Amino acid sequence: PSCFGYPLSIFFIIINEFCERFSYYGMRAVLVLYFKYFLQWDDNLSTAIYHTFVALCYLTPILGALIADSWLGKFKTIVSLSIVYTIGQAVMSVSSVNDLTDHNHDGSPDNLSVHIALSMIGLILIALGTGGIKPCVSAFGGDQFEDEQEKQRTRFFSIFYLSINAGSLLSTIITPILRAQECGIHSKQRCYPLAFGVPAALMAISLVVFIIGSGMYKKVQPQGNIMVQVFKCIGFAIKNRFRHRSKEFPKREHWLDWASEKYDKRLIAQTKMVLKVLFLYIPLPMFWALFDQQGSRWTLQATTMDGNFGAIQIQPDQMQTVNPILIIIMVPVVDAVIYPLIKKCKINFTPLRKITVGMFLASLAFIAAALVQVQIDKTLPVFPTAVQSQIKVINLDTDGVTVWFEPQHQSVNVTSRGSTSYLTFETSTLQSFNVIYGGKTASQEIKLPGGNRHTLEVKNTATNIVAQLLFDNVTSKPEEGNNLIRFINNLPDTVNVTMGDTSFGMLASLSASNYNLFPGGRKSKIVVVRNSMPCSVTSKAFGFGSAYTIVINECSIDTLDVTYSEDIPPNTVHMAWQIPQYFILTCAEVVFSVTGLEFSYSQAPSNMKAVLQAGWLLTVAVGNIIVLIVAGASKLSEQWAEYVLFAALLLAVCIIFAIMAYFYTYVDPNEVEAQLDEEEKKKGKNDIVIYEKQADSRM
User: Fold this and answer.
1) Among 417-426, 476-485, 644-653, the least confident range
2) Coiled-coil stretches, from where to where (predicted)?
3) Domains, the chain
4) Which site in 231, 275, 412, 546 is 20 to 30 Å from 476, CA atoms measured?
């Protein structure tokens, strides 16, 4: 059965691919944040495991291709590995259910190792599944066409690529929204089970859709794997060359010709072409090393930025959607506009030149990321080292005050109901402070533990000067763009304070509450109950990643007067500043990735496509391993320096590749094949002539 001149079966294949990519990219979008916030790993471990997982996903396709070509055939391989995949996604979803081990219901898992073990099992199964079916699905789609449907087949591959990007785009938008929901049985958390559960459900749908179409598919019997033959041929050539290494044996034109005793000329000629292309692949992994950091380092960078786009709040993991959105726009634009323009300028933009430009652009994108990082670093607060202490002064009085810190003779003047920023002291040299209101003075000795922040609240009451040193239990900027809020009660009575849904409890006069977490970018209602009389006010919008102390100064029937003291400034660098680096990297992907596969196919015989596809995917895997090595070996404490390092490495590789490309000669596999056909015909004719002569001489 056909539809619009296409075999009906491919619609099932395209829907299957859409669901599978949705499932994979959705899971991958929230993965690094799941590691960081749920499994509580630090940035470096999260990045390392993330890239190990991606590398595995690109190593397993070789396994999938071998199973499909030599043993099960494509259809059975896709079905059986999809089942493995669906189980993996389900295990992943279960591993993120916090109530699984949270017996004391405090909202964090009691036994993290159970969750870690489950998620690792899940990720391994997913890597087996997604990698194993990757080379089979597109090839299986190609198998559905007859030989004369060349045009439809090409169009199918474009639609196929679009369905991949549509799937990844939708899931990168939707999954982070699911993650940002609150859910849980006993206590409310970020909803990772839903964020992993929806991809699992889609994988199951994908599997069902694929099986429904079963009766319509053209199923080609497995013909043995060409990869195995290529490896055997290379192995035999090396062994044979090694056996005949003494001078008396004549040299052969190419080292692969040493396989001619055992393998036919055609296989040797094809293998030579493949090796020529694979040699060019050697520098390519460096590109993927940079490209795949969108999901790890760049997402972590977005967590320290301001995601307020007016009406909408962007989650840090949603910034990755910029890539598929731009791909869907850029692929047609580049093909229809940019390339023809370059052609008009009489520039011969060969495939290898395109790949070189792609590498150059990717290193530019990382320079852009480094520049953004430098801007972010400027806004980050400086916390005290182990031998330092920081103190900020909050004046709760309506008169100005002067505070002297001894023995450094360092003084600060604080205006009416004002506060200072944090002052840094060497802990060992700080002994006492004096508080001076007009003519009244109070002094107090202090001994601080070091490595912490403190707040000194001062007030001039009718009888004496009150000076209280509070311990600020905050040593890092709040994660995920949340805000920390605490209250100081500057009223003579005890009050009950709530903000939004969070109760701060009873606060005695001049005492401070603990810090509580609030989601970023929102306003909340503050309600203060004094002598069973409530008064309320709507807070200001706190931005992302800040910490504030709110002082309650006045509470009467209709007014609540509060002052805000900023302890940690909010994230001020806007997430939109990431768009340039995403744009440059997407341009790089369009000229690099799309060209790379096209070029490989044009330079090798048709039956070797699987080998090249495996080689291409291998470059992605190696690229992710490079991230592990570089990030692990470089002991760079500054993130921007690491970005510059990656950019420099890729630039160096780009120059090497340009030199290799300069010496590359393009081949036309069809001509080589035709030549071989000619030779075989001649050989056939010669054999017949020889046979006839032998027959004649016998008569």
Assistant:
1) 476-485
2) none
3) 1-224 (1.20.1250.20), 281-379+576-669 (1.20.1250.20), 381-472 (2.60.40), 475-570 (2.60.40.2890)
4) 412
